[in-house]
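Quick bug: Protoheme IX farnesyltransferase output formatted oddly.
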Amino acid sequence: MALATTDREIETGIHLSEATPSDYFALLKPRVMALVVFTAVVGLVAAPVSVNPFIALIAILSIAVGAGASGALNMWYDADIDALMSRTATRPVPSGRVQPGEALVFGLVLSALSVMTLGVLVDWLAASLLAFTIFFYAVVYTMWLKRWTPQNIVIGGAAGAFPPMIGWAAATGSVSLESVILFAIIFLWTPPHFWALALFKSADYGRAGVPMMPNVAGNASTRRQIFAYSVIIAPVGVLPAALGYASLGYGIGAAALGVGFVWYAWQVLRMSDDDQVMKPAKALFAYSILYLFAIFAIYLVDTVVGRAMAG
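Here's what came back:
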């Protein structure tokens, strides 16, 4: 039977997909999706309105599917450079488990489904922000910025910063300063997070021709910029408490996390240019992930506890 199938493929020119459900799930970039969903939940819960649980569930599922759609479109377009990097070579498209056309259709269908569901069942402003986020990540970042400028992560980071704002808009039908601050925290976190990765994966990016900051400006300049961003992100993380959107407890927790971020970035700044092990950069990369999850978790707990005490 297998031989007959192979002969038919040769005769007709039709390639039958060998993709499994797990391959399509991998196209969604589940780890990135988890972060998107979590920050969107924080934005939705932080909004000063009561949201029907069913509507909230629809909103979060739509945002999750939209994030997955962005990942699939990114993997479709980036298959050529993904194949050249050890970190991404085993992804479904460059490994051949999913055909490029399948990934493209999958991403487009999920994009339309997520935006229309969010708009029809929840809120059109939130749906518009989701549509813009998908477009920004798939087209502006993936197709343009990523391959043409070392500022790709700086500008492209906006795509990953929108979820809490989308969650807020899904709950309120509007955008507020509080949601903009949540956006800013992620936006400013993105460059030092990815540049830390780029420091110890610069050879990968060099083979793929991606102009990441270490490959274009050098390690020393990248280390200085990482430290500069860490000095900015630390106080921005405390802004919700300073402006009265969160409690003193959140402010103390955010300040402690910010000090940790600056300390790890300082270790990267002091790292020698010829350091082949890149332990400080790897430590900062790991800590940056913890930082973002922790600061949004504290914000979520602070909001829920604050409302319980007030009610």
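Actually, after a second look the formatting is fine. Confidence is low (pLDDT under 50) at residues 1-13. Closing.
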